[in-house]
Structure formats: structure tokens, C-alpha cells
Amino acid sequence: MIKLNIHEAKTHLSAYLKRIAEGETVILCKRNVPVAEIRALESERTAPRPVGLAKGRFEVPTSFFESLPDELANSFSGGGP
Fold first, then answer.
1. Beta bridge partners of 34
2. Antiparallel, parallel or unpaired: β 33-38 and 26-30
3. What percent of the chain has pLDDT over 70?
4. Which pLDDT band holds residue 39 (cuts at 50, 70, 90)?
5. Which domain holds residue 22?
6. Taking a C-beta distance cutoff of 8 angstroms, is the pair 5, 27 a contact?
7. Would you say residue 77 lies in a domain?
8. What is the pLDDT of residues 50-73, one digit of tens each?
9. Residue 64 located in a structural domain
10. Structural domain contains residue 78
């Protein structure tokens, strides 16, 4: 983590941006009091997300597939209880 006063950050911004892109975090200070944090954004995914990442981590109970009570089902379709 790098702490910088605003003046120093403005003066050497391009050099610090390179370090931020490499994973460093910069804390911007105003008169040595932290006011902001600058960190790299997550890069965009270049490959499609793989299917089945949570396989085996949980199990859907059979009750999930049972019909809803009529009162609850009617409220989803705009009807009252």
C-alpha cells in the first residue's frame, strides 16, 4: 500500500498508475489525512464462465419442486389471497 499526498500523486500519476495496474493500492491523503483509495478494477472476463462451478456444494431439496399453496401461487399472478 502506498500513501501519497495529492500533490505528489498529481505530479507522478502515470508512474503510480503502472503500479496500481500491477495490484498495488494507493491511499490519497490531504495534508497526511487519508481521503481516498485508488486500486485497479477487475479485468473483464475474456473467456465464457464455466458451467457447474458449484456442483456438489449444495443439494436442492425435493420440496422445492412441490406446488405452492394456492394463496401464494395466486399472489404471484396478481390475484389476492
1. 29
2. antiparallel
3. 96
4. very high
5. 2-38
6. no
7. no
8. 888 888 898 889 999 999 888 888
9. no
10. no
Query: Quick check: helix, strand or coil at residue 81?
Result: coil
Distance CA 49, CA 44 (A): 11
10 Å CB burial of residue 8 (0-12, 13-18, 19+) is middle
Q: Flag whether 71 is in a domain.
A: no
Q: In the predicted model, what is the mean pLDDT of the chain? A: 90
Which pLDDT belongs to residue 80? 61
CATH code of the domain containing 27: 3.40.1620
Four-CA torsion 37, 21, 50, 53, nearest 10 degrees: -40
Higher pLDDT, 44 or 12: 12
| Domain tally, the chain | 1
Instruction: Quote the CA–CA distance of 35 and 27 in Å, as a whole number.
Output: 7
